[in-house]
Amino acid sequence: MSFDHREVLSRNVIKGLLAGGLPFILYVYTASGYAHWLDSGEFVAAAAEFGISHPPGHPLASLVLGSANLFPIGALSFRVALVCCLLGAVAAVALFSAFEQTFRVSGAIREPLIVPLSLAGTWWVAGSQAWWFQAVRPEVYALQAALLCVAIERLLCVATSGRDGDVRPLYHAALAIGLALANHHYLALLAFVPAAWLLIGVWAAWGCRPFAWSTGFLGAGLLTYLFLPLRALSQPFLNLGDPTTPSRFMWVVSAQAFQKSLGPERVAPFREHLADVIVAMGQDLHLGTLFLGLLGAYFMLRVRAARKFGLFWLTLWLVYTVGRALLGFVHGNPDALAYFMLAYASVGVFGGFAIGVVLSAVAEAAPRRPRLGPALGAIIAMASLLQFARSYDDTSLASFADTDVFDDGLRRSLPARAVVLAHNPSTIFRFWGGEAEELNRPDITMVPLPLSSYPKLVDRLVSEEPELKELLRNYVLDGRLNAADLQSLAALRPVFVEMDIRVAPEMFDMLVPEQLYHRVLTADITEADEGQAMQRHGKLWDDIYARIGEPHDAQTEVQLLWRHYNDALYFAGVGDLHGARRSVGAGLSLNPRAAELLLMRDALKHAFPGEPIDITPFRVD
Questions:
Q1: How far apart are CA 110 and CA 408, in angstroms?
Q2: How confident is the model at residue 267, as a pLDDT?
Q3: Residue pair 296/314 in contact by the 8 Å Cβ criterion
Q4: Cα dist. 91→95, 142, 311, 494 in Å?
Q5: 262: which DSSP letter?
Q6: At what angle do helices 76-106 and 341-365 cross, to 10 degrees?
Q7: Any idea which of 178-187, 303-312, 360-369 has the lowest mean pLDDT?
Q8: Are the C-beta atoms of residues 371 and 116 closer than 8 Å to each other?
Q9: Which residues pair with 84 in a beta bridge?
Q10: What share of the chain is helix, strand, coil (3-state, %, to 5)?
Q11: Do 48 and 63 meet the contact criterion of CB atoms below 8 Å apart?
């Protein structure tokens, strides 16, 4: 009997197009035309000229996302999002193949059911918010999912082939893991734990020689880190950590700036974080899917041929669930959800296995209806598309333009040669991303205060802007802004401070709201100017709300709430009760249960007009 390679290739292409094509179309349709909040602006800035982002530097992401510069259409932020769409689709294709191999090797699921159930599991997972949202915004997680899913698929391929199979997929897996380590090493390191269940069988079948070769391929992927010092030598626009020396290279790669998140000072105990993680999974995937996954895990562990694969997928779910809980969990944070992507894959394969076992039993009980099982499998595959409908409203960025609206007040509308002292990481990343894309305000100097401890960052700022020397030197020494330094600089250039709880109340009298910051007063500003600034502040927010429309994006609400809260502190601290009440009301309209704002609202009821109130009881840590 001849083996028709073209027919096999054609079938695989069709299955791949089904598994990844539909998610890709939906990802592109809902992709962000503007970079989203959080780190998205930073990764647009990194892609603009292959820069170095925050630790661990993400060298592979800089190279891959930088390929967006080759696309001839749309803004750079949209092109970077398109790259993430493609990577999300690649992850879905690899996941489908991994599901298919797992179902087939078990022998417990009838052949006609394997493909539709693999599609059902893939579409359900790819349509979850945790997966979908990583594919529609500039980020590193779609790339990470693609690499890890390819590694899993390749590892399953060699593990299911037996002694007479091909060992080369092990090398492909090693290279994918090496590249994943050069993108997000924490997520990549977690994958080594479940891999042990399959690698033991590979060792028994082929011995140690394939592992020696695999080490070389893994090392080849890690060579991507050489990009960091080589690129840093040319001083790109984004060069966080300046890893041009061995010590600074290790500082960046080891992500020392973020290691505190693993410490014992977490606010909530581990069990609460774990409960938060499980609840978030149940909300995203649906609670019924989790119970179905538990049933499938039980079935897979009972089937002898599938047991080690069941242990692999179960351990995969455990390490990524516990791994996220160890870092803590923030509800509504899409970066936190990204850690669940492989955990969701485990739930998908277990859920598909449970359904497959049941449908196979139904088909066996009704031998006169051979098409019943495949028909039910096809119905389930089509029903899994409902997951995309469930996630659409919380995930689609097709009409998202909020960051572009904020850019006017954050950067575009500022006076010439302004100096911005920013506290909010989203402001910092948004500023970098917008300027890297538009290049329309090179005269503005943005000082990222929370990153002042990053190696060479302050030195670079001072070398480019010598007038900042005293201000930054005293900030680094004292950890706070100095009023005299601010006013001295304001005599030379317009100076703006982003209002934050780290701004001492004693400084409020030398600040007035302007755009989305507070401007440092100079001697030639009159009381009338201050009064007009207060009035313009209210009109500014009316304009912003009119432009962003309803409903609000979840992360936009976070930004709005934080700014209204800080504005309320400022107005209360300077005795502008009307401005304070307006800001408190705007904040409570976003979160009616905000404890600090509720307390402030009560205090404002009894305050005397024009008299500052003590804001200490309303300040969060």
A1: 59
A2: 54
A3: no
A4: 6, 8, 22, 48
A5: G
A6: 40
A7: 360-369
A8: no
A9: none
A10: 70, 5, 25
A11: no
Predicted confidence band of residue 196 (pLDDT cuts 50, 70, 90): very high
Quote the DSSP letter at residue 17: I
Report, as an integer, the average pLDDT of 583-609: 92
Distance between CA atoms of residues 335 and 429, nearest Å? 15
For residue 142, count CB atoms less than 10 angstroms from its CB and return exposed for 0-12, middle for 13-18, buried for 19 or more: buried
What are the strands of the beta sheet with 445-448, ordered from one edge? 445-448, 419-422, 495-497, 517-520, 511-514
Query: In a 10 Å sphere around its CB, with 0-12 CB exposed, 13-18 middle and 19+ buried, how is residue 563 labelled?
Result: buried
Residues 315, 193: contact at Cβ < 8 Å?
yes
The pLDDT, as a whole number, for residue 1 is 41
Contact 565, 573 (CB under 8 A): no
What tokens does 52 get?
A: 């170095």
Strand, coil or helix: 100 = helix
- Show the tokens assigned to 150: 């390819």
Cβ burial of 503 (10 Å; 0-12, 13-18, 19+) is buried
Distances (CA, A) of 390 to 156, 176, 283, 355, 396: 31, 32, 10, 21, 11
Q: How far, in Å, CA of 324 to CA of 505, rounded?
A: 37
Average pLDDT over residues 529-546: 84
Under a CB-based contact definition with an 8 Å cutoff, are residues 194 and 315 in contact?
yes
Give the rounded percent of residues in the chain with a pLDDT score beyond 70.
95
User: Cα 513 to chain center, whole Å?
Assistant: 31
> Could you tell me which of 414, 304, 356, 387 has the C-alpha nearest to residue 130?
387
- The 3-state DSSP class for residue 445 equals strand
Q: What is the structure's pLDDT at 7? A: 58
Run of H or E residues at 518: strand 517-520
Strands, E assignment, 340-479: 419-422, 445-448
Q: Which residues contact 376 (CB under 8 A, 6 or more apart)?
A: 359, 362
- What are the C-alpha distances in Å from 307 to residues 106, 357, 432? 8, 14, 50
CA distances for 59 relative to 44, 182, 293, 377, 426, angstroms: 14, 6, 36, 42, 21
